[in-house]
Design brief:
The structure is a homodimer.
Chain A: E1 9-11, E2 14-18, H1 32-38, H2 52-62, E3 69-72, H3 75-85, E4 88-93, H4 97-105, E5 110-114, H5 123-129, E6 134-139, H6 151-164, E7 167-171, H7 184-187, E8 196-201, E9 214-218, H8 220-227, H9 237-247, H10 250-274, E10 282-284, E11 291-296, H11 301-310, E12 313-314, E13 316-317, E14 328-332, H12 336-347
Parallel strand pairs in A: 2-12, 4-5, 4-6, 6-7, 7-8
Antiparallel strand pairs in A: 1-2, 3-9, 8-9, 10-11, 11-14, 13-14
Helix pairs in contact in A: 2-9, 3-4, 10-12
């Protein structure tokens, strides 16, 4: 199944509510359109090849130094560049399929370590398999499981990575959706981000998948190593112009976080309550994120897809995520109205 | 020296006219801003991961099939992907420095063959050095020399490339600025673009360096090989939205071509006439393009840079282009008014 978009997905004459794409339902900050229109003339010049202004603004948002900033044509480009720099790539499964894909493009051996049954990282397995020169890519929170790595576990993993002289690439594209626990950029500041990089992106939280703006925080040495392989002018002028309009809209950021927390709880509580009362029986896993992984208890993911489609809802089947098999689906946290429709669909035996 | 932008370059309190950046002086087509404002909502969805609509529009503009289209985050990304696919990279020198840079990033041996003294390709040299699995990258017209490859020479090169089972990557980013001679996309249609790819871009002719839109025409087999290594969602939503607004503005295309032809002739004639009468003595090389390579006869390129800066003009020194040494500069064809200022600067002994 192809990657869905955020807006309602049209199937024949019917409009489906898209629960498959995990993007902020509050959409983009209000000031963005104005900022982009104003930047029109910037298209007529080459972007600053060093992206000095964009790096400065991003550093202010992430609360790190300019010299720590890496930019990408989306987070995927940063992941890709990292894969090219290291000997082998290690991932926990299930996780975002692009990690493994980019490793294979660069012909790097890919080592997959299954998460434990509660989807926490298998520390012993990692310790056994990790070697010098390895790149460990870890979603935090992880997609599709939706879990943050606990602070102590993360510190433990970092210690293992440093000991092996490997590298830890944290993909935190969904960071802002999570309850406040710890900020890895602040947590690893004292280590100078050695053997470590933390990726974030405008794609999910600022609902801008089309603008292609990924950014990351790492050591100046790693910034320099990446700069040698980055493609010239890889960030477009609109992404450059968007940054100041989105990063400092505190009202948008606050409202988005509150909305997701409230609606995630609403969905989890109601799936717990009604998930096994309808035709399709579902069990929700815990989530820290703006999406929820569900186990389909009495059918396959494809059956669930059809079931929800009939009820005007598009969900994400998870068979493409390794180790999940054919009985998991993922849904996004959307508006309260949309979320109610989802709950109605699972709870009513007679719906449609 | 860093890559210049198109708009006037400000130095202290002084505004320099930028002859260093070779972008269409007629700027972008008029309908673009409207098309981009209208596309704002598309930022909220992921671009189509297969870019079907953009490929269709690009194929229509290039007059080839959709199945022949490759897209890039600028032409440089396409060049980069090609470098990763082949064993060695061959370039003629002097040429665009990114060719060699991208080869080195992918750790591919780089073979440099100097152009002959009239800047035409050294066919014998190529025949001797080309091997199976090589990628030959050739600017057509070439930057900074500004020359199109003659049709028969190009056919000869293609025959050599096919015989060796190598690959010819034509970088035609400046194609639309050239006098109508032949269209390589039409010329190689009968060959099905086997062992061949023709790159073009919105950057120069449509004056959109910030939007990052490169495109190319090649065989479906090569399209498929590239698709396996391309980064997901590498083209941003604005580039997608811009294509229909720029490709079919025939009035803009016609006026731009006519302007460049007329003003290139104006510059060449007047440099011929006055080039050796002033303080800095210049000889212009022939050009088919929107820029002109000049030899500085009585000084170094850095002296010429200072000379022109004092007269409110920014030129491009060419010492970064291999084989040109330190006595060449490049200027862009600009508006008639700006071009007159350039001629005035070279012809007047008493200017400033």
């Amino acid at each position: 199944m192809e990657h869905g978009g955020f807006l309602s997905y049209k199937k024949k004459d019917e409009v489906l509510i898209d629960f498959s794409s995990n993007i902020n339902p509050l959409m983009t900050p209000k000031g963005l359109k104005k900022a982009l229109s104003a930047s029109f003339d910037n298209l007529l010049v080459y972007p600053d090849i060093r992206y000095r202004s964009l790096k400065k603004i991003t550093a202010k948002y992430l609360k790190c130094g300019c010299e720590n900033i890496v930019l990408g044509n989306g987070a995927v480009e940063i992941i890709d560049n990292f894969c090219s720099l290291f000997k082998r790539v290690i991932v926990f499964t299930p996780s975002f399929s692009e990690y493994g894909l980019r490793a294979l493009v660069h012909k790097k051996p890919l080592i997959e370590i299954p998460f434990l049954s509660d989807f926490s990282p298998d520390i012993e397995g990692l310790e056994k398999k990790l070697r010098t020169g390895d790149l460990l890519i870890l979603g935090n929170p992880n997609n599709p499981t939706g879990l943050r790595i606990e602070k102590n576990t993360l510190l433990q993993i970092y210690a293992i990575v440093k000991k092996a002289d490997a590298f830890l690439l944290l993909d935190e594209a969904f960071y802002e959706f999570c309850p406040p626990d710890y900020d890895s950029i602040s947590l690893f500041k004292k280590d100078g981000y050695k053997n470590l990089c933390i990726i974030r992106a405008a794609t999910k939280f600022f609902a801008l998948p089309g603008i292609r703006l990924g950014y990351a925080c790492t050591s100046p040495e790693t910034v320099s190593a990446l700069s040698k392989i980055e493609i010239a002018w890889h960030i477009n002028a609109f992404a450059e112009a968007a940054a100041p309009a989105i990063f400092f809209d505190e009202d948008f950021i606050k409202k988005s976080k509150a909305h997701i927390q409230k609606e995630r709880d609403f969905l989890l509580e109601n799936i717990e309550k009604y998930g096994t009362s309808g035709e399709i029986k579902l069990k929700a896993y815990k989530s820290h994120c703006n999406f929820i992984l569900l186990k389909v208890l009495n059918a396959k993911d494809e059956d669930a897809l059809k079931f929800f489609e009939k009820r005007g809802i598009l969900i994400r089947t998870c068979c493409s995520f390794k180790t999940l098999g054919d009985n998991h689906i993922r849904i996004a946290v959307r508006s309260h109205k949309d979320n109610c429709k989802f709950i109605k669909a699972i709870s009513s035996k007679n719906s449609k």
